[in-house]
Amino acid sequence: MATIKPFKGIRPQKELVEQVASRPYDVLNSEEARKEAEGNEKSLYHIIKPEIDFEPGTDEHDERVYAKAVENFEKFQKQGWLKQDSEEKYYIYAQTMDGRTQYGLVVCASVEDYMTGVIKKHELTRKDKEEDRMKHVRINNANIEPVFFAYPANKELDEIVANIVKNQKPEYDFIAPGDGFGHHFWTIDNPATIARITEIFAGIPSLYIADGHHRTAAAALVGAEKAKQNPNHRGDEEYNYFLAVCFPDNQLKIIDYNRVVKDLNGLSESDFLKALNKNFVVEEKGTEIYKPNALHNFSMYLSGKWYSLTAKQGTYNDSDPIGVLDVTISSNLILNEILGIKDLRTDKRIDFVGGIRGLGELKRRVDNGEMKVAFALYPVSMKQLIDIADTGNIMPPKTTWFEPKLRSGLVIHKLV
Length: 416
What we know:
single chain; 416 residues; alpha+beta; six-stranded antiparallel beta sheet
């Protein structure tokens, strides 16, 4: 059962939130962050991507960069740009995209729940990425950015959230530059409401990592590390918990995560199309963008034309939670069998494009000669993600893309 707790959040003053809030550290590179933060000393990028305060080209893993993060975090608090709430609270963080709003509860999740599998994952993590975020958590003694969780939708929690949203003015309410998404934020101050939320979560069997596997692992591992180092460890210290935004699973939408490939592995276009016919029904769709319309249907762009590829019966196993995934089908039957791409994590011939960029981005990258062929996949469902996590399986790389991304800097959790 899930253990959560309220916390004394460190937050921007209302009038500064749009200057402080940023995109997550891992969705943009150093130069993009430098550009977004230009002329804005209050941008959270100075804490989560502090290499922007050094010469361009400075290694983001340089020890000076981590030290700069601490210096800037302290500066933000000293200047009053970030202030800590005096009482422990929960918070509501809602996001609006394309007219649809999803409502998350901002909580502190349990390190022990991650270690024991109550918090379930569906992706593998890389040690180098874990260690980078662990350093950032350790040196700041804080979770500067939240992780993104899902939980099985609960009617009473929905009602609690709806009641607060209806009757309480939001602390923050703004449209983020660049993405155009709405971000809305409320505090939950009532002790009885806080206690009830904690109680309801104690009856929820599992939480699911939607986005932020490396941040989750790093936060939990640092917490476990601190517990081991403390000879007087009790279990209720703040480092036993980390910052998470938890959304009901029925409000979340996974969008497509697509592939572009540099070459046809030595095949001519006609031989490549012939090879596809073995496992797919191949239909030419012309020059208008074609979007996959169902599971096991794929879109392909090659030499100025769009194609529909439908996997033939018998080429996948509907009773296998991994084998039924379109990423598995495309990886096995196209990328591996025909194009010779064995490892999606390391092969330099393939790249990945989040569906938020649209299928026009696939066309662009093929038309400009950078890539030879592109594949668009039908999105994974939340049910598929939960089935995989519940069975202890791991999704293939680059399977899920959640949008909108959480805005960082709305609230921070200190480990002391």
